[in-house]
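Why run this: before we spend reagent on co-expression, it is cheaper to look at a predicted model of the complex and decide which construct boundaries make sense. The entries below are exactly what would go into the expression plan.
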Amino acid sequence: MTRISAMLLVAVMASALYLVHTQYESRRLFTELDRAVAQARQLDTEHQRLQVEKRAQATPLRVERLARDRLHMRSATPAITQYVTDDGSPVVSAAAAGGRP
Amino acid sequence: MSSRSVNYTSSPLLASKTPVWRSKFIVAAVALGFVGLAARAAYVQVVGNEFFQRQGEVRFARTLELPANRGRILDRNGLILASSVPAASIWAIPEDVENDKPEVKAKLKELARLLEMPLPALNAKLADEDKTFVWIKRQLDWDVGQKIAALNIKGIYQRKEYKRQYPEGEAAAHVVGFTDVEDHGQEGMELAFDKDLAGKPGSRRVIKDRLGRVVEGVGAEVPPVDGKDMQLSIDSKVQFFAYQKLRDTVAAHKAKAGSVVVLDAHTGEVLALANYPSYDPGNRRNLTGEQLRNRALTDVFEPGSTMKPITIGMALELGRVRHDTVIDTTPGRFAIGGFNISDTHNYGVLTVDGVIQKSSNVGALKVAQRMSPQEMWNVHTALGYGQKPQIAFPGAASGRLRPWKNWKPVEQATMSYGYGLSASLFQMARSYTVFSNDGMVIPATMLKASGSPVGTPVFSPKTASQVRHMLWLAAGPGGTGQKAQTVGYSIGGKSGTARKQVGKSYAAGKYRAWFTGMAPIDKPRIIVAVMIDEPSAGSYYGGTVAGPVFGEVVQQTLRMMGVAPDMAVKPQIVANAVEEPL
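The model came back. Tokens follow.
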């Protein structure tokens, strides 16, 4: 009888200590998770911010200015464009070239 | 050993010298103490339980708000038109700022530099020591905030907020709009779709330790719901190009303002909607109402000559005229109800085609006289005149179209060439979908359309095609819109010019010029409407002022859409300005 009681006492003590450990571990993991979530969020906003910045660098205004000034490009016009169709037919049909809609 | 036995209880040695009541008193006192404790325990555990639970929680549990992101506004190709980025807002507890210490003074000077704020202004904000909270500056760039945090001035704090960034700047300002400092939409799409864009912040309960670290979550977390991204029908390249051309033209003609609307002829999607003067939505200091107004939607005016194709369309549809019916406009004047309606020239005998090509007022009214007011009103209404546009945009004007029962003969006559009713540029552009879409008028939309729109048939495909041919003639040699010509693409369109109405009469020397048309004319892909307000450097005719903007916008837009040219490429139109009636 006494032996069983002693064993149970040891078991209870072990379980109690394990509980304390688990609680500690769970809090530690929780803080870690919390930190990771916060970091994810921060990276997400950073990503968005950088996307906007990238976009700001590629606005039509800037692209056009760079193309014109630095790269000396000019806009394509139909006069200097070769048009290709799937079946090889001329792009400008005779009727349209004649001008009747 | 013999001894007298003595009873324990009656032993004289053990006889208490103190009275019995004292021990009883102690026992009673201790018992009372326990009763008190039991009562208190019962009170704490049962009666006042809630209060104590709450008090305990207040000391270690905190509710954290989980902020939601406001949705982005994207163009039709997914490019960002508006997006939220983190921003730092600086606040202070003036009392805690030790601005008499020299090292703090130096830091404040640095702070003022970072804030781009004069030092006296900063000091003035910190002067009121009675206040415990003062905003110094809100919504600074995030990296500026980091630098300020690095200064580490006592009493200066910052809070993380979000601010909107508009990469397209002034080109798309009127479409996109802007938000206020509290992240609520104030103008444009930001206002129209504020509910969808705004997210719903979430929350969660946590337990914090003595050092303020979160150690445990309590209960269920309410996750934040981010705002929805809105994808507009706007193409930011078309938008930018249209804005640029408009701005240049307004400057070149010393005009007051201008607007451009570009619609997809098949889907009714708004590809571009630009106004000048505009503003930078990121920097709204010194903003005037002139800059803010989305003229294309809010300003109404008499559509003038752009109504003539609609009048002719009605008559063709009802079978009152054919495209080659002869109309005699001699002598270029017509008296009706005490008014004289005239053309700039005596065009003599014209066909119906010629009425549009030469833009003859007399011709248009003679065609209109073959119809009843009700017939005209029905078509006007079906095309959206006098109706509030079915478009999610704050402040879109509905224009004016009087009920047909009150029309006098002279009004019916003036309405045939676009006077006596009013509409916004947007409404005019949209009404032209009836010609581009084989007689079906389609609703316009600011959002990217997924399916094909449901149109309302107003004209037959044959009528639409005949009117398109007339529009093509009007933009061709001998027409009023030659300057709208492009290289490679066939266009059709109608110019308009009107004296501006000031009060009840028409002002002298103040004009409004516009051009509405479509391209390529046999299978239209886009509808473009241009309006220039008060051009005052030389010409003021719609064909010569607004026409070139139309031409360039069409040229660029069709190229960007990858539409192959439908005309042999050679400069074939020699532009001779043809005057047009007012």
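The CA atoms of residues 57 and 63 of chain A lie 8 Å apart. Chain A touches chain B at residues 26-27, 30-31, 34, 45, 48-49, 51-52, 55-56, 59-61, 75-79, 81, 83, 85, 91-93, 96-97, 99-101 (CB under 8 Å). Bring this page to Monday's planning discussion.
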